[in-house]
Sequence to fold (482 residues):
Amino acid sequence: MEGVFSSFASAMRQKWLRVTIFTILGAVVSVVLLFSFIIYNYYYSTVRTGLEAKARTATDFFANFVSRSYADYYNSAYRYTETFREADRLELQFITADGSIMISSSTITSGTTLDSPDVFSAIESRQISTWIGRRRTTGERIMAASAPLIYSGGEVVGVMRYITSLERVDRQVTMSIFVAVGIGLAVLLFVFTVNLIFVRSVIKPVSEITKMSKRIAEGSYGIQIINSYEDEIGEMVDSINEMSQKIAQTDKIQAEFISSVSHELRTPLTAITGWGETLIYNEQLDEESQRGINIMLKEATRLTKMVEEMLEFTRIEDGRFTLNVELIDIAAELEDSIFTFRELLHKDELEFAYSSHLDDDAIISGDPNRLKQVFLNLFDNAAKYGRDGKRIDVAVFLASPDSVGITIRDYGIGVPEDELESIKMKFYKGSNSFKERGSGIGLAVCEEIIKLHGGKLELANAMGGGFLVTIFLPMNNEMATV
Fold:
């Protein structure tokens, strides 16, 4: 049962955290991606705007020289390059109309042909063109802005080109993104921690309430949950406590009523059975009267059995059910029970097959009368509900080095799978019980007797048809109640 509670708490915790974390994770990732995109655009747009503005200013300055003569243009470009004050962070190039470097502020050899798309785009469009790429010689990432130099007649005489390294910009962008990712992870960790604390504050009381509710559902009526909550959970605890108390009161009234009725029925049933057995031997009665008395005795016996079952049940409920424990040979007790019941089975023309798979005597500590009561009850159920199969198998075997197993199988119609968990509940009568009338507590009493012996009662549909009851009883066990 603890595993069920742990699984419930774990599943609820995982579901809560999964929904919350995935939602926050999606939001954080979206924000980080948006921030990274904005940072990237901001830095690179700033560099591009600066290069374009410088190129535009410089080309306007050179417009006068270009309009005079090519020699004036060349000399002015040479002097401008020689006195270029930003050579530490920018590279200046003057490029001919065919894409060859004419003058450069760096060590690039004059006459070198470029294949950068910004140069040819500026020449063709006669507009400033930018480009981001890598140098062929060093692999360094750069940004270049090329501005066309145009004669007064409209002919492009060359291109003025500014180049800057993107190393610092890339480093700044990367650092900003790392900071954003770090903040995002910190937010995720904070949200996860807060949610974990919150979920635990909810899961713990819910788990405790679930445990107590399970105990109430299993029959521990009247138990109370300690209410230390002042919110909706506290209201739920109060409701469950009130329900438990009312169920306990109802159950007590029911048990008292059953006990009272059972005792009241016992006396007249004893008288009916006694007088019936006296009259049955009266030779003056005709055949029809004897038949009626037989029916009366049969029904009185059935009612007496039901009364005994109900009395046993009330003793179990009140804690007055005790065992007279002694060392017994469980196989011998089983065989005695079979012998006791065999005549009744012969009347129903049922085949009764018994087999023992024990090498030695299986000695256990138990109450022989109570165990015989269990065996006879299970034989009776097998005879009732397995009558159509014409056969009942009983076997005893060594289930483990310290326990013995007993199986009782009939070849009837079995039990619907959805009823297997319920048929041991008190007063439960399955859908196949229409053939026989009963109190519905026989199996509940049997299970309680087996539990008091430290054993286990298992019910299942047998392979190939029919119903299978398996009893496990410990050898060398200490009794729960003596």
Notes: The first helix runs from residue 2 to 68. The longest strand covers residues 141-150.
